Amino acid sequence: MSRLLRRDAAPPVPTRELTVRSADGARIHVEVHGKDGAPAVVLAHGWTCSTRFWDAQIRDLAADHRVVVYDQRGHGGSPAVAPGGCSTDALADDLEAVLAATLEPGEKAVIGGHSMGGMTIMAAARRAGLREHAAAVLLCSTGSSRLPHESTVVPMRAGSVRTRMTRGILLASAPLGPVTPITRRVLKYATMGAGSAPERVETCARIVHACPRKARAAWGRVLADLDLDAGVRELRVPTAVIAGTADRLTPIGHARSIAAALPDGLGLTELTGQGHMTPVEAPEAVTAKLRELVAAYLPAGTDAGTDANANVGTNANANAGTNAGTKTDSSAGTGTAEKEEVA
To answer: Please, which residues bridge with residue 239 across strands?
Structure first.
């Protein structure tokens, strides 16, 4: 069985762990994987997830990249914040703080975001910190507005009733309870493609169920009223979009609209049959796209066996079962991490 699929695979061990203080004093847990001086990739996870969502990308990239991942506030190792501390401005503040703490002044990185992580990048589009550090961006399975109106998680005809029911799901604070066969089936239906491997469904279920319910509800309220269309139009760095055609949370129409509105768009890669959790469902395709962006837009980037300039921005309808352009780091998951706090 592939290391990407093993349930018992230990999480990659970072070379450094930091606690970064955001603009309002919120503490953000950050991990750095790989070697100093290697091309930098910064990854922001989505709603109800954590740094563990990027384990497949870390394992493949850390051998020849420096990979920075962090927990959105209230998720994973980042503590909950006071009421009112969840907003799109807070997402942008946290990303700026992470970039400042992990990159040298003026240092460029490829910045990727999945779902709410992509919304984080849109929210930061006008920020000086993003413009200073972003060489290129990958928006993965995300949307910029009208999420309750366009989601198809509730299996009924579009309209006001479905929109209200979807908002109710986003705002729900009931405990999810333990991972069971029933909850796995529900999560797979709502967030993943029908052909998703059981091990990948299990991975997503354990990550989502670990999210504190208060954080889930607080951020769900932000998503229910999201409007970052202006941020898409202000994202003036080379930006690629990747999404699954079977995504119910942020259906493929969101990705198509974003790709069309980007000032410096590199095109949309549609992953046929994949759902919302593409970094876990289709890790090879997502990692390959990150490598393409590094090779094309970072001066120190190296070609990972594909012609990045030819491939970036193509609508490949990529097959998640391929492993094009990726490398496996056999040492990932070993060693010890330094821990520090950055004001």
So the answer is: 137, 265
61-93: b (≥16 Cβ within 10 Å) or e: bbbbbbbbbbbbbbbbebbebeeeebebebbbb
Backbone angle region of 106, left / alpha / beta, with phi > 0 → left and psi within -120 to 50 → alpha: left
Nearest to 340 by CA among 11, 29, 81: 29
* Residue 139 Cα distances to 75, 128, 233, angstroms: 20, 19, 14
Sign of CA dihedral 149, 112, 96, 295: negative
pLDDT digits (tens, 9 = 90+) for 291-340: 999 999 998 654 433 343 434 444 433 333 333 333 333 333 334 445 67
Residue 237: how many CA atoms within 13 Å on its side-chain side? 28
- pLDDT at 212 (0 to 100): 96
Count other C-beta atoms under 10 Å from residue 36's C-beta: 10
What single letter denotes the amino acid at residue 328?
A: T
Closest by CA position to 117, among listed 76, 152, 164: 76
Q: How many residues does the chain have?
A: 343
- For the cut 60, the answer to whether the pLDDT of residue 2 exceeds it is no
Name the β-bridge partners of 237: none
Q: What is the pLDDT of residues 236-276, one digit of tens each?
A: 999 999 999 999 999 999 999 999 999 999 999 999 999 99
pLDDT grade for 277, boundaries at 50, 70 and 90: very high
Strand ordering across the sheet containing 134-140: 265-271, 239-244, 134-140, 109-114, 40-44, 66-70, 27-33, 16-21, 338-342
Q: Which two tokens stand for residue 224?
A: 């229910």
Please, are residues 211 and 48 in contact by the beta-carbon 8 Å criterion?
yes
Q: DSSP character for 273?
A: T
Decide if pLDDT at 161 tops 90: yes
CB 7 within 8 A of CB 199: yes
Q: What CA–CA distance (Å, rounded) separates 201 from 206? A: 9
Question: For residue 5, what pLDDT is reported?
Answer: 46
